[in-house]
Amino acid sequence: MRNNLLETGRKSNSNNIYGKMCKTASKQFAEEVLKVHNDYRKKHGVPPLKLCKKLNRGAQQYAEELATTRVLKHSSESANGNCGENLAWASYDQSGKDVADRWYSEIKNYSFQNPGFSSRTGHFTAMVWKNTKKMGVGKASASDGSTFVVARYDPAGNVVNPGYYEENVLPPRK
């Protein structure tokens, strides 16, 4: 299982690690991220995801931690294989659609003829991974107005075992 980072905008100032969170993921934001995920998943002929309260709580807690430290790195939960995780940072207030569209845009770098993990396509493959059933979403803003978004997936995608990409990352239907 692999995880993915995505940054947009200017670099944050990581010297001020006590940034105050002024915004968190709303139910509306999480539902927007979910809807865009499911619209894309439908194009690939894979089942829709459902929001999971437990994954939402964990994603929100971690988004708040990232907004405080202003260091974009994956959580220990994802590193230990307990969930898949996509991260995004931007210097502005990101919409759910904007974040999901940026992750999905990595499809342009993915080779369906030569499937497998790449750091240039991991957000996209996590989004459309066929065997993933549930997701959670968190969002937090740092004191400088930059935002951190965390999406968590269960079961995790981007499993590098032989044949897994062929089975789980299907080309879009015509």
Automatic annotation (TrEMBL):
<dbReference type="InterPro" id="IPR001283">
    <property type="entry name" value="CRISP-related"/>
</dbReference>
<comment type="subunit">
    <text>Homodimer. Interacts with CAV1.</text>
</comment>
<dbReference type="InterPro" id="IPR014044">
    <property type="entry name" value="CAP_dom"/>
</dbReference>
<dbReference type="GO" id="GO:0005576">
    <property type="term" value="C:extracellular region"/>
</dbReference>
<keyword id="KW-0449">Lipoprotein</keyword>
<keyword id="KW-0333">Golgi apparatus</keyword>
<dbReference type="GO" id="GO:0070374">
    <property type="term" value="P:positive regulation of ERK1 and ERK2 cascade"/>
</dbReference>
<dbReference type="InterPro" id="IPR034113">
    <property type="entry name" value="SCP_GAPR1-like"/>
</dbReference>
<dbReference type="InterPro" id="IPR035940">
    <property type="entry name" value="CAP_sf"/>
</dbReference>
<keyword id="KW-0175">Coiled coil</keyword>
<keyword id="KW-0472">Membrane</keyword>
<keyword id="KW-0519">Myristate</keyword>
<dbReference type="Pfam" id="PF00188">
    <property type="entry name" value="CAP"/>
</dbReference>
<feature type="domain" description="SCP">
    <location>
        <begin position="28"/>
        <end position="161"/>
    </location>
</feature>
<dbReference type="GO" id="GO:0000139">
    <property type="term" value="C:Golgi membrane"/>
</dbReference>
<protein>
    <recommendedName>
        <fullName>Golgi-associated plant pathogenesis-related protein 1</fullName>
    </recommendedName>
</protein>
<dbReference type="InterPro" id="IPR018244">
    <property type="entry name" value="Allrgn_V5/Tpx1_CS"/>
</dbReference>
<dbReference type="GO" id="GO:0042803">
    <property type="term" value="F:protein homodimerization activity"/>
</dbReference>
<comment type="similarity">
    <text>Belongs to the CRISP family.</text>
</comment>
<dbReference type="GO" id="GO:0010634">
    <property type="term" value="P:positive regulation of epithelial cell migration"/>
</dbReference>
<dbReference type="GO" id="GO:0010718">
    <property type="term" value="P:positive regulation of epithelial to mesenchymal transition"/>
</dbReference>
